[in-house]
Every structure is written in C-alpha cells, then in structure tokens.
Amino acid sequence: MIPRLSALSFRTKINCGIVLIVGLIAIPLAYLTWRAAAESLQTETRKRGLVLSENLAMRVSDAMLSMDLLRMKNMVDELKKVDDISYAFILDRQGSVLVHTFSGGFPVELAEVNAPDGPKPHIRLLDTGRELIDDFAAPVTIVGTPFGTARIGLSRTKAEAAADRLALMIVFYSAAAMVAALAPSTLFARRVTERINRLKRHAEEVVKGNLDHRAGPVTAKACSDTLSCDNTRCPAHGDRASRCWLTASPDQRGEGPESCRDCPVYREQKGDEIQDLAETFDVMAVSLKSHLDELRRAERVLSRQERLLRTILDATPDLVCLVDENARYLAVNRAFANFLGLTSEEIVGASDRDVFPEDEGQAMHEENSRVLAAGRPSDREVRLRRGGSPVWFHVVRVPVVDASGRVIGLLRTARDVTQLKQFQEQLIQSQKMESLGKLAGGVAHEINTPLGVILGYSQLLQEDVPGGSQIQADLQTIEKQAKVCRKIVADLLGFSRQAESAKIEMCFNNSLMEAITLVRHALSLEKVVIATDLDERMPIIYGDPEKLKQVWINLLSNASDALEGRGGTLLVRSRLFAHEQKVTAWFADDGPGISPDNLGRVFDPFFTTKPVGQGTGLGLSVSFGIIKDHGGSIRVETPAPEGFFDALDDPGHDRPGTVFVIDLPLDHEETIGGGHPANATEA
Amino acid sequence: MRRRDVLLAGLCLPFLAACGRDEDAVRVDLSRREEPVLRQLPRAVTYAYLPQYAHTVSYERHRLLLDYIGRATGIPLRQVFPDTFEEHVRMVERGEIDISFSNPFAYIRMAASGARAFARIIEPSGKPDFKSQIICRRDNKELKTLADCRGKRWMAVDPSSAGGYIYALGEFFDNGIRRSDFAEITFAPGPGGKQEKVVLAVFAGACDIGSVRDGTLEILRGRIDLGQIRVLAESKSYPGWVYCARAGFSPEIIEKIARAMFALRYDRPDDAAILSAAGMRGIIPAVDADYESVRRLAEKLGLDALPGGEE
C-alpha cells in the first residue's frame, strides 16, 4: 500500500523532491537533447553527405576525364570504409555505372531512384527494408558541363543508432547524476530533519511540561565569556545554550536580533532559520516557564486564600450564601448546608424556592429580588419553623456589583438569634417578675399585719363563744381561711425574698424524709404511693431546713397533682456526688408529663395549668428561688429518662412521667465515700 | 485552466514538438543486382593536351577548341587525359593519341617515334615561343642573382617539362650552375597541375626557388598573393607548344584539322574566346625543323641519355 504523501517523513520528501526535480530536469533534457542530437546528427549527416558527394564528384572529375576506373574505384572504396556510408558509386553522363562499392552486382533499382537537381546535389531518403539510407546525388560537372553523377548512401539508421546511443548515454549520466544527487540530498535531508526532529522533541518536552529542555545549539563559549560580562543576574550569563540577544535583552526584541548585528556574540553564534526557530522556542520555553511560575505562585496564593475563606465561611455559625442575579445559589457555607440538611452541591444552582418550604422560600426569593433590583442592602429578622419550634435569624443581604457597578448577585448572611430572642423574652419576663415581686412583697407585707390581727381576733373570739356553736364554727372558718391567707402571704414574701432564711448544717435525707412523712398519708388517700431511694451515706448540706422542706413538699404536691387523682407512684431518689461537691435529688412521677410548650415556663411565677382557684402558680417559682438561694439548680425532664422507674416493685407504668432534678452544693468537706456521676437511671 | 494543467502542458510541449518524421522514404530493393557493363565509346579522333595542368583545366582550356574543330571539320574529336608527360608520350607512341598538343621537349621525344609537328601556337605574349621563369619568395633576401641559387632547394615542374624545368636548367647550365650545385632538386608531385604546384611550393616556402613556364603566374592570379612571388630570372625563349600527329595518322585529317586551326583569328571574338580559353593567341603552321634549338638544348644538357627523355 502506498503511504499518503503527507504521511511520509520529511527526509523522504526531500529525497523524493530532489530526485523528482533532477528527474524532471534530466528526463526532458535527455529527451530534448536526444531529439536535438538526432536532428543535429541528421543535419550533420546531410551536410556531410553533401560534402562527401560533392567532394567525390569533384575529385572524380579528373579520373573521369581520363576514364581512370581504378582511381574512381579507389575513391568510392575509400568512402565505403567509413562506417555509416552504405555505398558509393559513379554514374557517367549516360547514367551507366562506372564504379561502385557493392559486391555481387549493382542494385539495378538504385541508379534510377535519385538524380542531381540540375547543378545542385539532391538528397533522397531510401528505405531498403532493412535500413533507412540518405542517398546523395552530386553532379560531376566540369566547366559547367555535366559529366556524370557521384552517389553516396549514408545510413540514417546507423546515425539514429548513434543518436540513440547518445540518448542512452545521457539517460545513464542523468541516472548517475540522480544517484549522485541522492547522496548529498540524503545528507542534507538528514541534517535538516535531525534539527527539525530536535525541535519536535523540544516541543514534545514543552507539551509534557519540561520547560528546561533546550532546542538551540550549545556553543563553545557563553556570551558572558566572549564579552567578559560580569552581570550574573543575566539569564544568559554562563549559559552556553542561551543567546543573550534573545534572552538577556528582551527590550531589544522590538527591533529583533538585528540590533545586535555588530556584536561579536551575534556574529559568532548567529545561525540559519532553523537555529533562529530553535532559539525562539527556547525563549518561548523560558518565557512560558516564568509565566507558569508566576501563575503557580498566584494559584498557590489564590488556593490558600480560597481555603482560608472557605475555612472562615465554614467555621462561622452564620448561614452564608452567594446568589447570582437570578437569585440562584452560587456558593454556600457548611452551616447553611447543614441547616437545610443538604450538601453544597445540591444547593448550588438551586433557588430559595427549591430548598426552603414554600412560604419561606417565596418570601426569601421576593426579598432577594428586591435587593437585586434596588441594589441596596437589607437587614431584617426572619422567623422560621424548624422541628416544631420557632427559629429566629438575623438576615443581612448585601448586593454584589461588578467593575461597572452592575449588580451581579448578593451576599446573604443569616445569624441564628433564637437564643437572643429567648433571652430578650426572659429579660422582659424577669423584669416583669421583679416588678411583680416587689409589688407582691409590698402588698404581702402590708397585708400580713391586718391578717395577723384578723387571725388573732378570730382566735380570741373563739375563746369567747361557746364550744360547738355556729359562731365558733364560723370563727374557725375565719381562722382557717386567715391561715390560708397567711400562707399565701408567706409565699409572696418568700417569692419576693422578703423572708429571711436560716441556714444550718442539716441532713439531706432527713429533710427529704420529713417532707415525705408529712404528705405520705394525705397522698395515700389519693392512691399515690411515695417510693424512696435515698443515698445511704446520708449527705450533709448547709441549708434552711424549713425552706427546703417547703420545696420538697411543693414538689411532692405538684407531683401528686400531676397524677390527676388517678393515683400513681412518686419516686424520690437522692445521691451524693462527693467529687463534684454536690448532692442531687430526683422527684419523679409517672404521670402524663408536661407538654413541650409548657416545659420552659413551669418555673415562671403565676404560671399554672390548674383551674382558677386551685393554684396560684407560685409553688415552683418559689421553689426555684429557694434552690437558687441555696446555690443550687432545679430543672425538669419530661418524659422521665428511660428505665427511671425500673427499680420499683410496681413496673408497668405506661405514662411518660416527669422528673424534677435538684442539685445542691456541699459547703464543706465530706468524708463519706467517693463521687459518682449524676445518672438519673442509676438505681 | 488550472496552474497545474498549464505546467503539465508546458512540460509535455517539447515532447509533442519533437515527435514525428518529416519526409517520406523511397522504397528500394537492393537485392536485385547485376554487374554493369561500360558502353563502348564512339570512334573519334583522340586529342590530348600534355598534362601540365589538371585534367579539368586541360579540358576547360581545349573544350572550345575541340568543339570548334569538330564543327569546322565534321570530324568527331575526343579529348583524352594522360596523367603524366611520360604517359602522354607513351600514348602517342602507342597510337592512343592521334593529335598531341605538347611542349617542345615532349615533342622531340615523340618525334623520335614518328610523330610529326604540323602546327604551333602563338603564346599569349604574342610570340610563337616561350621561356622559363625562375621564381622565389619576395622576402628571400639571399636570392638576388642566379648565382645565389647555388646550394638552394629547387623545385621544378617535371623532368620532361620544357618551360618548367629544362629551359631553366639550360639557363643555369649557361650560367655555370650544375644540378649538383643545388641542395636538392625536386619535382612537383602527383598528376596534373604541376606548374601551379611549383608556384605554391615556393609561396609556401617548401623550396627556395621554383621554375615554371611563363604565363603560369597569371593562372594563379586571384588564388595567391602574387606580390609575394618574385621572378628571379628568365631563360632564353624557345619555340612554343606544338601540335603533332602520331605516326601513321591520316594526313587528310591532319590537313583538315590544321586548316581549321589556322583559320582561327584572335581578332574575331568567337575565335578569340576559343584561343583565350586554350591559352594561346593563334595557331600557325609548324614543321619539325622548328624545334632544332630544343634538340640542341637537350643534347647540351645530356637529356638524350635518359629513357623517354627523363634524366
């Protein structure tokens, strides 16, 4: 299969081209030379034949006059010795053959086929069947009188054969020239293609990224040696593979190396076009390398800045995102993706309407559109619903503009301010409670005195009335209700910290048992069983026994109320955590539990779920205040931790239950036992 | 047309232009042969001119004269061309030449065989006799007198040539110069044209002196620069060329021919053309006794001892 011309190697193309050129020149030249030689030979043959025949005619005239046949015979025989003369003969005036060169008789047809053209010779081409003969008939004229004819036959076939031999020789020499041309052309092609291949290898190395490869020739001396140049900062200094006019003087490239024409380095190292190309490649590689180095440095800086920025964005708890002019996400930080429960890749390209619930997404999209359209930042708080509870975000939208000032997107940051909002609500509530407490304390203080008078007078009056009378009964009712009032007033005073506490060292377990003993009977009437699980190490605390007892009774009372009269079990557990210097008590019931909505408000003053008249909502609030006063904490868990009631003898509780956990500090060193973690499930 | 087609056509054009043969060949069968036989020439009176010049010159000079004699006498004449003086003499002796036109010395030899003179010519000089000229190159400073020819190379026309050799030899003899005094004596080579050859030899420097009959230099005028030739000396005059008839030739025919010859007049243009071509002014009667002076010269030079008159 013949390969395509374009697929041939350059060396083969050069060789083929030179052979083709030599062939195209030599072959037509050989042919034309052959033709010219043939024609020239033919012309010369004709001239020669004419000369020979006329010469014969002239020379034979004397012999003809004297009828010297021998001389005439010798003359024609002399001619016959010439290779291409086929025959020669002499005719007399009457056309009779006097002498001839034929052996075996004279061809009878030959004498008549040609005759002189008057006083001039005549040429006629004869075909003998074996060869072509130019027949020359020259008149033998003496003083204008025709005496006969001299005839000579020159073989044109032999002349043409000579021309053919000449053509063959030309072809042979042309072929030899072609072969001879092939050798230097091969050397030339090899020289050229070697250098081109070196350029190719250089280009391949550049493509592979090796920009240190050099294509130009290495000279014997570096330019710095030639010029005794001590500029070591020059890139061509000491480098025999670099040309200073290309690498060291980039400012001169505007005029090209021509500006270095008179420099000895240029004169010594200037090469041909291929060397120029190779050196340009080298310069290109050096330039490319320097640019790549700059790009790599810039890339490293950018990459580091990107990582830094990404780290900052991902580290910030704020929800940060960048949207384009169509309000579609371009980038989001990790907090944003976590908030939506999606990956960054899922979010990028989507819009707010795709990733947020319908109402929230629509609102956000509209706000985005307003900011994009107006080009002014916005700042607002947004309330979202997540997990059944509200979540507040402070959302800031800042438009992003390009160099021409056109808005091409916006940066949106959203900070979770839910806790702040709760603190704000709590602060407002605390301030309200403080004012209310001060009001209640003042009122209770003022009521306490007349109430004492009422109680005192009712007791005095009971002494004055007969026993068992209606008046006594009424007075007892007055006394009882007055006591209730005094209790309420005492609670109010306690709530408003009006009551002074008297803290002493006391046994924690005993305090609990005192309270349990007080209420156990009453609660048993409501089918409520109180189970205890107290730490046997008998932890000692520093506190007000009465107030703490009030707390325990309050908690037990609340627990009983939570059972809603259907009975149940109350579990009181205490544990000492010596290493944490605290003691913990759990008051648990197996009731229906507290709803999540109310869970955060149970310690608020006057918060109650009981019907009007059955509770003031101050019990837990007062208990909270007492525990805080003792440096402890109280919290509620509902439902009760799993397995909290497992230690009881009466399992099978199917209600979630509620547990109040109270931690109280130990003010002095305890010598009893070691610490254990406060695990509510611990038996 | 695309450029490639033009290029291709340009390359092919020389091939197309060079193709083809430009003439037709005549078919000839060379196999049918027979040996040619020469025709017998018609009988005629043979006429020969002593070959002092080339045959063609001889033919040219006497062609008109023969035509005239033929017309005047009604006798067919045919010119024959002996190659040498000797052959001429022998052919007369053998009867192959009926009428001979020769120099006096050749005549006395032929007369010995029975040939008889019947006419003689008047030379272009207007005299019925002629002489020999001894020539040399004009720039040859050594040759001033005849005596200076001693030791020189001498080329003569022919040993039998009267004007070209013998008359000059007689002149040298009369001046005391013998043949042995010359460095060499050579004769013009080859047949015919010997007078001219001598002049050319002197002109070319092949010899120092040459001897020719008078009138020869005029024949070469225009062919060589005669200014380069100097006539060193001339011999005494002797009777001019002579017509003789071979022994036994018909006296009547001789008479007719002689009359026709004598009838030529140089003052008639037609006759003058005939006579001028033949290099003569006229033809007058002659007898054998007219050539006694020549016989004496031969005797003086001792030429009789040579066979055929040659030395």
UniProtKB/TrEMBL annotation, chain A:
Residues 442-668 form the Histidine kinase domain. Its EC number is 2.7.13.3. It comes from the Bacteria. Keywords: ATP-binding, Kinase, Membrane, Nucleotide-binding, Phosphoprotein, Transferase, Transmembrane, Transmembrane helix, Two-component regulatory system. The chain crosses the membrane at residues 12-34, 166-189. Residues 376-429 form the PAC domain. SMART domains: HATPase_c, HisKA, PAC, PAS. Pfam families: HAMP, HATPase_c, HisKA, PAS_4. CDD domains: HisKA, PAS. It catalyses: ATP + protein L-histidine = ADP + protein N-phospho-L-histidine. GO terms for molecular function: ATP binding; phosphorelay sensor kinase activity. One of its GO terms (cellular component) is membrane. Its main location: membrane. It is found in: Membrane. This is histidine kinase. Residues 305-375 form the PAS domain.
UniProtKB/TrEMBL annotation, chain B:
SUPFAM superfamilies: Periplasmic binding protein-like II. PROSITE patterns: PROKAR_LIPOPROTEIN. This is ABC-type phosphate/phosphonate transport system, periplasmic component. It comes from Solidesulfovibrio magneticus (strain ATCC 700980 / DSM 13731 / RS-1) (Desulfovibrio magneticus). The lineage of its organism: Bacteria, Pseudomonadati, Thermodesulfobacteriota, Desulfovibrionia, Desulfovibrionales.
